[in-house]
Amino acid sequence: MPKTQSPPAPPAMDGVFMSVFSSGIKPPKHHQRFRVKSAVTIPEIQHALTDQLRILLGIGNEDFVYGQDRLITNAGAPYHSHFASCAPAHQIRKPTATDHATQINRESSSPLWPMLSNWRSGVGAQAVIKLLAAVLNDLMTEFVTWSYAGNYHETLHLHLEFWVEHLFLRIAHKALCCLDSTSDAQRLPETEVKRYKSMAMGRLGALRVDELFEIIVDWDATFPAIEDLRNFTTNPATRGYLTHGFGKVLLARLLHPGASTIEILQIYISIIRAFRILDPKGVLLDRVVRRVRRYLRERDDTVNVIVTGLLADTVDHDTGEHVASEPDVLSELALELQRRNTHDNSADDGEFDWNNMDWVPDPVDAAPDYMKSNKNTDVIGSLITLFDTKDVFVKELQSTLADRLLKNKLDFNQEISVLEHLKLRFGDSALQGCEVMLRDVLDSRKVDHVIRRDLEKEETWTQLEKRDGGIELHAKILSRLFWPSMPEQSFNVPTEVQERQQIYEKGFEALKQSRTLTWLNAVGQVEIELELDDRTFHEEVLPWQAAVIHAFQDSDAVNQPVSRSISTLAAELAMSPTLVRSACIFWVSKRILHESAADTFAVLERLPSGADGDAAMTIDTSANAQANTAAAAEAVAQAAAKEAEEADRKQKMAIYRQFILSMLTNQGNMPLARIAMMLGIVVPGGFPFSNEELKEFLAGMVKEGALEVGNAGVYKVAS
């Protein structure tokens, strides 16, 4: 077939060319080097090149084996391009000459090589070389994602280096030689091999940055991936990429109202552990956790969760074994506190530690306010320094410790251990109140033992024991000024208990002269045992719950369950109706009472038939009902506690009212800030309310006509 040639350039075009170039330069023979058909085949070439190289490099094929595909007993298993399909690293054999020959022979039958020659003739070598570089660049990223995503192992980098050296570079070099006859057919120099291995490790590091949140969440199973990140974060650019990308992921997946405080703190702890390995200097950790710490400070229950976790019981006192952590308690902090107590006394690696021979300067990407001390980068140190002042933490510690010390426990070794560890961080003076609380409880046991021993010798006490056998009264004597305020939910205790309290007071006054007892009936625990027709119930409950169930016993009732209404119980016990309802719902959840009518409850002497054994469906329904009732009881109890707290607050505000009137009368007009400062000085225990709450209270006094507001917000007594 005769060849077709492009028509010669028209004379007009030759004139234009000669007007631009000198006479020694001739115009091109053909104005169009490539035909339109050749340009259209570029995407097709790229697609075919990608498919063929993917096959040769073993991407997407989990059965791809380098060299011989059989297991050699003495040498080990062959290399698989898919990491999860490989045998353990110590079982993979090094490629032999036979493996190399087998692999090269297998690759020689690929249709890629004749395709390269045809593409070189059609579109030119340089165009195909550019396509080859772009395709290989994408395939390296594709291979890393396909083979290593979700796979974490210490020897993973060896697998990647093998793939780069024996597959990626060799095939890329062979393809380049087919396109460019001037290329050296010999193997690439070692420097080039190292450069491409470093490039592949960078792709692996970028993958680990994308997976970092999953790595942090499942830290126990994924910690080998941190080594991949260490090889990646070797310069400020990659370090910035990691912190910026991970910060965005934290904002989207963790720092939102849908995540509980415990979940956020658990991930925060894993972040600290992971980043201390990734960057021992703590610069990356400092940059990542700033947003997390700021978000935790804004949550109301953060301090409570931290303190509760520190005081969690991690050992069963009966068996001495570690107990499983509760889902709503961050007991991991208690274990961490025990592990880190030896680190607390270690020397700080600060700027002026002249004896530290391992000192290195801070990284160049450290923030201006970067903290040099490693004490703030361990788990406990990071959490207790979360707030600007330690008073917030100490106040919550006192409140939580008070709840634990008021329980009936055999010992308080856990609380003593936590206080000793925290004193190393806060100092003795900050935890003096906690020390007094602990000493009160321990001394109360001795005092209670002496008082009861003396009372048992008296006739009145003996008569009460004979009349009301089984009732025992034990008291914990608290120092009022050192314990947190306890809202008093007043009610009438049973007569038997009240008689014992009066005798116990006399015994205490005889032992501790010039001191008197003030009973806090709503605080403490009551161990009760209820005998019903078909069962016996034994448990520790709150005093007001015990008082309500005690009101249901009636020796005069014959063959009829005792029934009480909410209003009757509230009047009889001098207890708020909300608290009475909470107690009744609690006993309904324990299947001791049932609501026979609206706001009326009766004793459930016998369980309904089928609830204790025959019908599994009935049992499940009953269990669900109990869970729902228990939740309702807890909600009502919280509402009752809130009412008591609000009443206590109003009572205190009445006292503050007198303070304010006296100050303004004696010292003249004052602005809001000075009034708050003066109240903080004169009020015993400090003024517990913020300036905004004080402003609202003063506005109420102005509305009542007790105060007036002058210029610049100055308050004065109304004339």
From TrEMBL:
SUPFAM superfamilies associated with the record: Cullin homology domain, Winged helix' DNA-binding domain
One protein family per Pfam: Cullin_AB
Keyword terms: Cell cycle, Cell division, Mitosis, Ubl conjugation pathway
GO biological process: cell division; metaphase/anaphase transition of mitotic cell cycle; protein K11-linked ubiquitination; ubiquitin-dependent protein catabolic process
Molecular function in Gene Ontology: ubiquitin protein ligase binding
Occurrences of domain Cullin family profile (ranges): 383-588
Entry's Gene Ontology cellular component terms: anaphase-promoting complex
PROSITE patterns in UniProt: CULLIN_2
Family: Belongs to the cullin family.
Protein name, per record: Anaphase-promoting complex subunit 2
